[in-house]
Design goal:
- With 352 residues, the protein is α+β, with helices and mostly antiparallel strands.
- It folds into 2 domains: 157 residues, no CATH class; 139 residues, no CATH class.
- Strand 5 and strand 6 form a beta hairpin.
- A 4-stranded antiparallel β-sheet has the order 1-2-7-4, sandwiched between helices. The chain has a two-stranded parallel ribbon with strand order 3-8. A two-stranded antiparallel sheet has the order 5-6.
- Helix 1 packs across helix 5, helix 13 packs parallel to helix 15 and helix 14 packs antiparallel against helix 15.
- It contains 15 helices and 8 strands.
- The structure holds iron/sulfur cluster (2 copies).
- One iron/sulfur cluster binds next to helix 7.
Length: 352
């Protein structure tokens, strides 16, 4: 079977498995790695020290699998029908007592969903191809530059908001890769279609874009609510608004996301309590409730104390006076980070 026919087979199998798009990149050194290194040098990875490890391996994916020739890149959409509208129209409508969770985390953990699809893809490829081959799977789990690879595989371009953006799917997609020894026909990279637009850069409430195509994670709500384990810088707290896990603003305003079709993956259907979480409940979140709420979801990435801290700050930002009893209890918490966030929120709620 020729590399072109093999590639066609990979894409057909991907479609059958519900993957939104599949592209193929060569297992060659990545040109985007230069940008990644300069991003690290500027310290924009903030406290995510793991991103600064294995930099050379990230730049040369073939080092992760002996004899690797190709990388099958897959995108799976988690676009919801309401995501087609810009941020101004999708601001929280459910009342001041609810917070916001980034859309990718509303349903089942995408790591599990996408990994299952990719495992099945490899299994079916083995059944269909007579020749033996090696394959190694990644879903946000290994030292790979996923967005750069997806761009090299023609799945989209790395946009001014630093997300992978596709004309067909928008940017509400999760990415996974299969590094393989198979020789496959490669796809051409997509060109940049951001044009003169700056909507995402202008909309960021914490000023996390020092320039187009550059994101300073230390100012990004996604980093602050999910990765950052200490108190949030007081100067950034107001910008957090009602977000308690992640942030979608620079995607919500993107024109390419307006027309993108809704996701077909049933695993991404919202789990009760995650799409519009009660701030009062999250401020007082107990261990058992945390385990039940986050089981099998990407929200588990944030520790319970971080979610409580985030919910307290969101209550202060959204003027949620119904959370005052929960905040008063949290202000006595043994964890100084939670107690301080609750006291900050109470002071905000008392402001005239
Ligand atoms: S996710 Fe939110 S905080 Fe982060 S860069 Fe985008 S708009 Fe800014
Ligand atoms: S909002 Fe505009 S500049 Fe930002 S990613 Fe979308 S098209 Fe590009």
């Amino acid at each position: 079977m020729s590399p072109a026919v093999r590639s066609l087979l990979v894409k057909t199998l991907g479609r059958e498995l519900g993957l939104s798009r599949v592209g193929i990149a060569p297992a060659a050194p990545l040109p985007g790695a230069t940008y990644y290194k300069s991003w690290l040098r500027r310290g924009y990875h903030a406290g995510m020290g793991y991103l600064a490890r294995n930099v050379e391996r990230r730049a040369a994916p073939a080092s992760l699998l002996e004899g690797a020739r190709s990388i099958i890149c897959a995108a799976l959409s988690y676009q919801s029908s309401s995501a087609n509208r810009p941020h101004a129209e999708t601001a929280p409508q459910a009342g001041p007592a609810t917070g916001r969770v980034a859309r990718y985390a509303h349903g089942r953990d995408y790591h599990l969903v996408l990994r299952e699809r990719l495992e099945t893809l490899v299994e079916r490829l083995r059944q269909r191809l007579a020749e033996p081959f090696e394959a190694r799977l990644f879903v946000d789990t290994g030292p790979l530059l996923e967005r750069e690879l997806a761009a090299a595989a023609g799945l989209g371009w790395i946009a001014k908001n630093t997300m992978l953006l596709s004309r067909e799917l928008g940017s509400y997609t999760v990415l996974g890769e299969v590094l393989t020894t198979l020789e496959l026909a490669h796809d051409a990279p997509e060109t940049d279609h951001c044009g003169s637009c700056t909507r995402c850069l202008d909309a960021c409430p914490t000023g996390a874009f020092p320039a187009p195509y550059q994101m300073d994670a230390s100012r990004c709500i996604s980093y602050l609510t999910i990765e950052h384990r200490g108190p949030v810088d007081p100067g950034l707290r107001k910008g957090l608004g009602g977000w308690v896990f992640g942030c979608d603003i620079c995607q919500e305003v993107c024109p390419w996301n307006r027309e993108a079709p809704p996701a077909t993956e049933p695993g991404f259907a919202p789990k009760p309590g995650l799409a519009a979480p009660s701030l009062g409940e999250w401020i007082g979140l107990q261990e058992e409730a945390y385990r039940l709420l986050t089981r099998g979801t990407a929200v588990r990435r944030a520790k319970r104390g971080m979610l409580r801290r985030n919910a307290a700050l969101a209550a202060g930002n959204t003027g949620d006076r119904s959370s005052i009893p929960a905040l008063k209890l949290a202000a006595q918490d043994a964890d100084p980070m939670i107690a301080e966030a609750a006291m900050w929120a109470l002071r905000k709620l008392e402001e005239p």
